[in-house]
Amino acid sequence: MQGAERMAAPAVHPAETLLDVRNVTLTYRTGRQIVTAVRGLDLGVAQGERLVVIGPSGCGKSSLLKAVGGFIRPTAGTILLEDRKVERPGPDRMMVFQEFDQLLPWKTVLGNVVFPLVASRRFPRAAAKEQALRVLTLVGLEKFMHAFPHTLSGGMKQRVAIARALAMEPRLLLMDEPFAALDALNRRRMQDEVLRLWQELHFTLLFITHSIEEAILLGSRIVVMSPHPGRIIADISHDGSPSPALTRRLHHLLTEGGEDARATAS
Amino acid sequence: MLAPQPLDPTAELRPAPVRDDPDAQDLPLWRRVLEVPLVRRLAILAVLASLWQAYAMFKGNALILPSFLDVADAFFTALGDGRIPAAVATSLQVLVIGYALGVAAALVLTTLAITTRLGRDLLATLTAMFNPLPAVALLPLAFLWFGLGQPSLIFVIIHSVLWPVALSTLTGFTTVGETMRMAAVNVDLRGPRLVVLVLIPAAFPQILSGLRIGWAFAWRTLIAAELVFGVTSSSGGLGWFIFENRNRLETDLVFAGLVTVILIGLVVDAILFRLIERATVQKWGMQR
After folding, report:
1. How many C-beta atoms lie closer than 10 Å to residue B276's C-beta?
2. ipTM
3. pTM for the complete prediction?
């Protein structure tokens, strides 16, 4: 019913692998303990794919995204982006975070989009401004380019963050539950916005969520993770149309399925 | 395929503006005037000045307590004949040099502190040791090392500015959100560029309050140092102006000097720092 008024998200034909996560194990320290967030994980992401990773909290999905972003180093395994090893954060993988404080409060909307372009030395100042204006127009924020972030609503702030990431023309767009802090209505608007932008730009998206609805809506492929330690329990190609069967399957995987898989794994 | 349509971001939920109540009445004029804080404060000052004037006239001893009008007269005379401006210029010159050097040193120390663990330990130890030490207590040593003159005063001012500014700047740096840091590192910002382009503006509310405290310390320290050690160069500063006029038993000029100290403190804190605050952290919504 709702599906009729929403844009159909086209499926992506398998293309060359852009991101290759090979046998990656991620650990972190809490006090005196070493916790394994992700163990022996393999994942390939194709060019132009919208890959949504879904899982309960503690399944290591955020750690995985941070590792792809280069913010944490795998304790084992390698992450390859276009056959080059990911060693550190870089502007070829732009992150969009959940928190609103990812924007710089002392810069205007335009300044926030221009800043990374210039700071990363990818664009000279004049070209950066042009690029920023183009992307801001794309997300419908050109009228607000001189506003400071604190005057914007949550949804608009996330829109600026997305514009900032897209302006960098990254090889891979990384989103870590970017709409979790928004109210339901704005969340829906932003999800549509992401699909609309994807239709226009065909970027490659790695999107983390814990919402089944969001995963089905946004993903051209959905990967389900289960905790303790984090690993993949399902990898589902998806044409973007909402289906009750898929919802049921994901729901099952996220509740009982995870438990079953853990029992057999240990 | 659907043509992509930009969504209107202004259509997001916003509270409806509060309408003016047509039945609301204006307050009477005198009530509205009293709503202005400056008016209330000036009224208090006027009352205090009258009390002072009355008491001084009752006492009739200008050597111990000159009247308000005597002091006002002495103030404007000394202002007009250039004695106060010269003293202020001397004081402010030393102050600005010491303040700038102190802030620069604080910046270097805090940058070290956030980039290396050794730097952090160093700063923590030094601030713990020197922050409780009143700068004036270092004056005898300063004179021993640098002789009577500007360098000694600058030395104690640096001491009075450095630690509070370093402490609040470090607090500011450490409270910069992890997300903002990651967003900056994401676009290859590291080292000094990260500090200058992201950390300093992000920590600006704390840095500004540190600068304010540093200014207050430096101003007090300077006046006290000039008072304690009298003239330190060919022309004396405000502290020296007060000290000298006490020796000459020109008490009204002593008061005039004190008034000048208060006025400068007030102008810098209530006007200069307020303006900076309004143009930065308030405009950016980082402080209400």
Report:
1. 15
2. 0.81
3. 0.78
